[in-house]
Amino acid sequence: MPELLDPLFALKDAELAQLREKVFTATLDRVFAAHPYYRRRFAQHGLTREDVRGLADLAKLPFTTKADYVADPEAFVLGAAGAADDTETVVWDIMYTTGSSGAPAPFVSTAYDFVNILALNRNMLRLRGVTSADSILNLFPLTRYPHGAFARAMNAAAAMKIPVVAALPGHGSERRPELGSRLDEVAAIAARSGATILWGVPTFIRKVAARAEELGLKLPAVRLVFVTGESFGEAARQDLEQRLRRLGAANPVISVSYGATEMQGGMVECAPGAGYHNPAPDQFLFEAVDPETHAPLPDGEEGLIVLTHLDRRGTLMLRYALGDVACLTRVRCPRCGALTERIVSMPRRIDGLVKIKGMLVNPQVLVDTVSAEADVLEFQAVVAKDDPGSPLSMDRLVLKIVPAATASANLVERLQHSVYRAIGVTPAVEETSTDDPLISGRDWKARPIIDLRKQG
Ligand SMILES: [Zn+2]
Hints:
The protein is an alpha/beta fold. It has ten helices and 20 strands. The protein has helices at about 15-35, 35-45, 65-70, 110-125, 150-160, 185-195, 200-215, 235-245, 365-370, 410-425; strands at about 90-95, 105-110, 135-140, 165, 195-200, 225, 255-260, 265-270, 275, 285-290, 300-310, 320-330, 340-345, 350, 355, 360, 375-385, 395-405, 430, 450. It has a six-stranded mixed β-sheet with strand order 4-3-5-6-7-8, with helices on both faces. Strands 9, 10, 11, 12, 13 and 14 form a six-stranded antiparallel β-sheet that branches. The chain binds zinc ion. The site of zinc ion has 7 residues, from loops.
């Protein structure tokens, strides 16, 4: 018998509204008592608890941006005042997201929040059609700082009580590179694990599938592929499906998610093209708002996607712009029957950040890092595909530099190391001269990263 969606998704409109009101009212009590950032903003706006009774007053709340958060992330963590018990204040874990100045911004989850995170991860798996017969291959690399993707796959398996194997692709850590797996090992782990779900960055999954094919390995058990982090077009979907069929998978389904550190999870599809479902309508509320006035827009109109945490106790945001514009609908999903918000268009980033190999990169951090290197006279960063002829190719970050005549011999190695430490991506460094048209005749501060992926 197939496992059904969480009963949460079967609620009637009035029941869901009532549940949301209940948790949000308790959250608002805590925010007014103990949220450093919002207490300050509310005072500036003259807002009292009586003015903000519940969800009907949401539009009265000040709008929050990623810039507000990363400027002072500690001010977004709830204090202890009004806590029901210590699960609301004891820190379970801290994940990090891209910050403004190079220092990643902490996102704190308390013990109370971690239980919610398990629940929302289980909901994500159920929406994606996972059953107790499935098993996960976690293809996310170990990151320099705690980052949602790697931990999410492990936690989701725990919440669903299914097996997970972490392949730890890449270098593991700088101090213990032996912990990581090279590509051939990853392909071998994929084959021997017999996992039914591959979960990782799409360009890397494609690389693993390609290598497995070269090595003559088979992945017949694979029936689901979870991809996150990068936009994934129809051509890429078909390509990956065909590769997996050649590896023996009977009917692989690619399931795309729209994730964010601020959710500790992602909005997921129940079927390709069915939209990205809010996986926990009792924890998150999404709005699409007018980018200028921040007024809520009707269903189906493209607007800034705004997240409100209905039930968090660590880092907590209200009416927080995730940095993308997209179309939202609140209509029950015609395919799976879930009552929750869905994003029904491909989200587009408008906050100036760039995604490279699944990592959210602040161009200014890259500029600051390379600018700090005295041996570099000029530079230009270029994000391109490994194979420019293929839209499915891996991302490649190339740093073109004009070195000083007196530059030390290990400049390239030093730059690769410092850029990796700053943004989590290792660049290929190419030396060039000031005659290079990429270097001459433009101001790299205005366009520090040229994104060639967007052409064609
Ligand atoms: Zn659905």
